[in-house]
Amino acid sequence: MDNRKIDQLVAEKVMGWEVIEYKNINTTVIDDGEFPVEIEEFKPSERIEHTWDVVEKLSEKCGVEVYQELGAPPYCKIISGAGKWIEYEAQNDSDTVPVVICKAALKTVGVEV
């Protein structure tokens, strides 16, 4: 799954925003309830400041733990209020900390990554 698709799914499934695709002009827009912006403006799989927005959203209902040790792959664990947890560890070199957090977040809402 490429980063653009991850970003789109996180916007829709995790953040709860409306995602609108305009195929005739090859543009995807997200509407967070304030004002619509192009999906390129929200890149949690690449921009850590956007990734932390995802962590803050998850923190409303879950505990979020992120581990990154020198030489070890990034790892994210999300713990729900019911004591259930979802874990995701980097699978390859392209799984950066933001990607790992996004993939763990998607798993919490039932999206397989």
UniProtKB/TrEMBL annotation:
Q: Which InterPro entries match?
A: Bacillus_phage_prot-like (IPR028985), Phage_ABA_S (IPR041270)
Q: What SUPFAM superfamilies does this protein map onto?
A: Bacillus phage protein (SSF111074)
* One Pfam family linked to the record: Phage_ABA_S
Q: Ranges for the Phage ABA sandwich domain?
A: 8-106
| The protein's name in its UniProt record | Phage ABA sandwich domain-containing protein
